[in-house]
Amino acid sequence: MNTLFDLTGKTAIVTGASTGLGAGMALALAEAGADIVLVSRNGSAGTKKEIEKKGRNTLDVVADLSATSQIHMIVEKTLLEFGKIDILINNAGIIRRTPAIDFSEKDWDEVMAVNAKTVFFLAQAAAKDMMKRKDGKIINISSLLAFQGGILVPSYAASKGAVAQITKALANEWAQHGINVNAIAPGYMATNNTRPLQDDPARSKAILDRIPAGRWGKPDDLKGTVVFLASAASDYVNGHVLVVDGGWLAR
Ligand code: NAP
User: How many helices (H) and strands (E) would you count in the chain?
Assistant: First the structure.
């Protein structure tokens, strides 16, 4: 059974790996045996150190995913260092909170660029390498807001709905090439992304009251899910959006 989840010899790119959910998933993949390419704007020194303690190799790539222009560089550096891309975790994401009536075009475009456009084109670039071996796993990080509208976050909800649909569209085309494309939709997780909600006593209580598990999620809660979707254990799982939310959506 253990070999089903073994990622020894695999290379994974994890975007937004410097902190939060990306750092947690990068560590999980490393614990399962993978070498990790860490992508963020400011570098992922802390995550790199943790992974190297576990005896895995890393490559820390500084890149801004608000434009697609850096995608080629990320793929080239990965292939130069590790020779192949087995796993892509499209995790980097941003959020802007403003009432819809005042929401600016700038906030709309910036969120859609990182959260949706780059997700598609980085998946496309990675798939070109995966297709050569007819083997690959692409995991896009969506959100509960692929299913719900959220409050004050219209571009974020639109972008995460897009991530769920991109996942299904790519799965339909690429399953035949041995590439599994799936998504994880995390619930309310305690990271920098949700800091304003955690710090607002009324919102924080309202959120907590609705979570059947009775607590916010933490990066470690995605460990098993990401290893499952990155490993042979999920070889016949295609185009699925796997919700990890302590029961929020079941309410
Ligand atoms: P976070 O703590 O804010 O971390 C975001 C990560 O993305 C950081 O590593 C950041 O590093 C990187 N990043 C942001 N913009 C980037 C850019 N333009 N180019 C490259 N890297 C960039 O967020 P998180 O909570 O861990 O969320 C991770 C993902 O899960 C996001 O897609 C988010 O939407 C999604 N999600 C989160 C929750 C939640 O409750 N936290 C729930 C559902 C979905 P730098 O700043 O160094 O670039």
Answer: 9, 7
89 CA distance to ligand 1 centroid (A)? 12
Q: Whole domain around residue 118: which residue ranges?
A: 2-245
Instruction: Provide the pLDDT confidence category of residue 2 given band limits of 50, 70 and 90.
Output: confident
192 within ligand 1 shell (Cβ under 6 A): yes
Q: Is residue 22 part of a domain?
A: yes
Chain segment 195-236, per-residue pLDDT in tens? 999 999 999 999 999 999 999 999 999 999 999 999 999 999
CATH assignment at residue 126: 3.40.50.720
Half-sphere exposure of 85 (CA within 13 A, CB side): 29
First to last CA, the chain: 34
236 is catalytic: no
Residue 222 resides in a domain: yes
Closest residue by CA, ligand 1 atom 27: 21
